[in-house]
Amino acid sequence: MRAVLCDVDGTLVDTTYIHTVCWWQAFVEAGHRVPSDEIRAAIGMGADQLVPHMLGRDPDAQEIRDLSHRHDELARPYCSLFQPTAGAAEFLRGCAGRGVRVVLASSAKQEELAALRRAVDADDAIAAATSADQVETSKPAPDLVHQALDRAGVTPADAVFVGDSSWDIEAAHRAGVRCIALTCGGTTAADLRKAGADAVYRDPADLLANLGDAPVALSL
């Protein structure tokens, strides 16, 4: 395996519930009643996909921009408090130390991605990164995964995706890439397996500790 493509929110940084609350408030302020548990399950999508998914209709571009902008405003104060998931930096360095190219594939915008990278504090192990600003359609569309593959300079068969949501799994598989899923983002192991994850672990520390075990040994 020549490259590991990593989701960031929920996978490398503990932000799932921050985004849940911020999206919930943005929807409430705009007059929408959206259950918070359904929002949490949708975290991992970019705003272009999450807003229509939660509203159950195709809103116009301005409504998506307005809700996304309000979410970003609400989330910004938390950026300085972001915390990495267990073993995030060690996992990235463990992959890089094995000669595997590490590429971030995030649905976050560039500003937030910069804060996420500061929280992980492992830029020395990261070869490249993609963000929602660089693709037309975010996860679960495969665009970010394709972009990450291009940045890594590898084919789908030479990469594995590490994420924490069903949307990560769908995006990876649509791009022809195997996906290892982590439960630290809040999705249960059963739901991740149901979504088609090729393997499931607790967090980056658990994955790093088990790199020698099948089926991960076949991937990294």
Total beta strands: 6
The tally of domains stands at 2
The biggest sheet amounts to: 6 strands, parallel
Query: What class, by secondary structure content?
Result: alpha/beta
Mean pLDDT: 95
CATH class of the largest domain: Alpha Beta
Low-confidence stretches: none
Q: What's the end-to-end separation, in Å?
A: 5 Å
Widest sheet, order of strands: 3-2-1-4-5-6
- Helix amount: 40-55%
Q: So, CATH architecture of the largest domain?
A: 3-Layer(aba) Sandwich
CATH topology value of the largest domain: Rossmann fold
- How much of the residues is beta strand, in percent? 5-15%
Order of helices and strands: EHHHHHEHEHEHEHEH
The CATH superfamily label of the largest domain reads HAD superfamily/HAD-like
Shape, per Cα inertia axes: globular
Query: If you compute it from the alpha carbons, what radius of gyration comes out, rounded to the nearest whole angstrom?
Result: 16 Å
**Helix count?**
10
Record keyword descriptors for this entry.
alpha/beta; 220 residues; six-stranded parallel β-sheet; Rossmann fold; DNA polymerase, domain 1; 2 domains
